[in-house]
TrEMBL record:
Name of a matching Pfam family: Glycos_transf_2
Disordered: region residues: 341-363
CDD domains, per database record: Glyco_tranf_GTA_type (cd00761)
UniProt cross-references to PANTHER family, sorted A to Z: GLYCOSYLTRANSFERASE, UDP-GLCNAC:BETAGAL BETA-1,3-N-ACETYLGLUCOSAMINYLTRANSFERASE-LIKE PROTEIN 1
Example of a GO MF term: hexosyltransferase activity
Protein name, as recorded: Glycosyltransferase family 2 protein
Compositional bias of kind Polar residues: 353-363
Transmembrane segments: none
Xref: InterPro entries: Glyco_trans_2-like, Nucleotide-diphossugar_trans
Basic and acidic residues compositional bias, start-end: 341-352
Domain of life the protein comes from: Bacteria
Amino acid sequence: MAKVSVIVLVYKSEPYIAATIHSVLAQTYKNFEILVIDDGSPDRSVEICRQFNDPRIRIIRQENRGVPAARNTGIRHARGEYIAFLDGDDLWLPPKLEKQVTHLESSPFIGMSFCRSSFIDVNGKHLGTYQMPKLKRINLSYLLRCNPIGNGSAGVIRRKVLEDIKFTHQRDGNFEDCYFDEQFRVSGGETDFLLRILIQTKWEIEGIPAALTLYRVNTGGMTANLLKRLESASQEVEKTRSYAPELNLRWRGAIKAYYIRYLARSAVRFREGKIAVNLIHLALATHWQMVFEELYRTCSTLIAAYLLLLLPQKLYNRIETLFVKAIGTIQERKIRRDTLEKSEARSRKSEVNRNNQKSKIAR
């Protein structure tokens, strides 16, 4: 039986899905199954998946119900001890599963492993920057300020964690086990999902230094999407009243504000200057303390939004290119440094274990 179930979400993924499946089949870790969840995709995505003719690939079709429902369907059909999610337009580098399975098996307390991610464009070209979430001590305070794993294609989670947070939902007269809340189809329900892990269980969420996910930035329909995602995210925040009323009372404004700031940064990336300025102002009006809590991210978002709105496009592009190059260089150095430190820590731990073993033999 496969140890890892890779759940690939497919909806209008025709230009990318072949490369996505290839990136899974190219993994150095081979004990996996691939569950392609066809969320009512109207294009040739599923037909392309069938052409692989690999016995490890199963295709499961459902009517179009959104990302949370597709993930729930995948989990219910999965056989593996570990579950990995991959969006139909993202890619993995070959060592990803091997390194994250090793990471999960290094500690019985880690419930979810994630890696850093590299941004790519619609053509698969590296954009030069990375998603750089912190790797340890993922707590509620940090989760409420950002997505601690970066994106939906970076994580690998134990089935036991999913069993600990599942709930029952009635649909068409039948009761189904659910893990993601399907009412949050626009925002994806990831904030609610991670909150329930941290609040309702004792499992730890921890990352590895390497950037092993290639996260595709796709601007299609993004302007309208930003506002829909804001509404959906607000509903996620309100849901915390039902299982963490004290948290909701204390952090409701902050959670909403940080998500609005995230949308403002997305608007900058998609060249929507006016929307970006309006969103960052809304974020500050909702929770002005973010200026002191996260000075760099907040001020850089504010400055970028105004530069995008006020400067000629060519001048803004030149400034952005220089800034992105500098940030990318700093991020790459940090990835190398963190990877080296993790390797050295692992070597020290192995040496201690060997010495302890020798001492036992000597006695």
